[in-house]
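Our preliminary data section would be incomplete without showing what the modeling component actually yields. Below, a chain of 403 amino acids is followed by its predicted structure, encoded as tokens that our downstream tools consume directly.
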Amino acid sequence: MDAVVLGGGGLTGRCAVWDLAESGVFDGIRVADLDRGLADTAARKAPGSTHVTSHTVDVRDRAALVDLLRGARVCVNAVQYNFNLDVMEGCLAAGVEYLDFGGLFHMTKRQLALHDRFLAAGLLAVPGMGQVPGISNILAAAATDDLVTVDSIMIRDGWRDFTCGAPPVVFTWSPSTFLDEMVLPAMVWEDGAYREMPAMSGGEEYEFPEPIGRTRLYRTLHSEPATFPDSFRSKGLRHCEWREGGPGIDVLQLLAALGLGSDRPVEVRGHAVAPKEVLLALLKREQLLGYPEGVQVEDREIVDVEVQGRDRSGPVTRHAYAAFRSKPEWGVAATEIAVGVCGSIAAILIAQGKALGKGVVPPELSMPPGPFREMLAARGVVTRICPPEPPLRLTDITSTQRD
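Predicted structure:
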């Protein structure tokens, strides 16, 4: 039984590769990337790497993609979200089940339209199954399970970096996606309809558990509001939105304001140049994609899903948390671990037949919360639903993850 990780040499894809290899569930893991050098490195560093192989693939090449996927049990898609549909078409052709790390709302909506085709093929595809979206969706399902009505779901994400000697700017997630979040209007679900809100609007000072603490958050475009209104329709969901913030978000906002997140070409000395492509090339040249070798990474991230609704006794407000920290022995940040490990766990549950449903099914409906949270706990990742569970403690967030 094999797993394929597309974009497996990237910041989050490599963490999925290493966790899958460490789990021992799969007979083989195929690490594929457009950059063969990155795929080779990820495969070489994987625990028990004798059953991990590296491959070069361009997911826009349908024949090559299907050839790579054929015979695998599940595909973890860690490539840029713009190519999600290409990979899903490849999985349909190869008869392979699928998950990705997010579609930034609009792509997720397009992916959901493939539901009938995956259902007819007897396959499961899970869009947005990383950290956020991903564990945020699963926590929302767990926190609302016993509620009669759900009025509001607010997803908030905050981070803080304690790394000594870190560069002033470092990207631990796709800068292209981050820049899109800074530019594209946020989508808020309000009383049965979507409302477009300006990117980086709705600034609020929010108090996360320590060590994140007080953090300024903003609305940005995200995938949870793309699926929650349908998933929680029977409970009458009236309001849903996403907000995020932490060190570096002001830099992203400035880059976006300067137009460096734009795909629209400008003419420079007679050549048409896309500002975003220039920025991405500079980030790669300056080695600002992931922490440099030799830096002891030390950062934290907390996802807080606030649910308001009613149970049989009356009004209820709950906070569902997931707390992530860096893994210095892998040299990766909290976000990289969070996204890659959540994707790995979902792939394992799919391969073991424990995921729910066929077709294109979002995480809140396809991933069993209990087993998922247990597998996170085995990796040192703490989740809480308060009440009835006890609140997060500082030691829960600062304790060392599984080696």
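The chain has a mean pLDDT of 93. The radius of gyration is 20 Å. Preliminary results of this kind motivate Aim 1 of the renewal.
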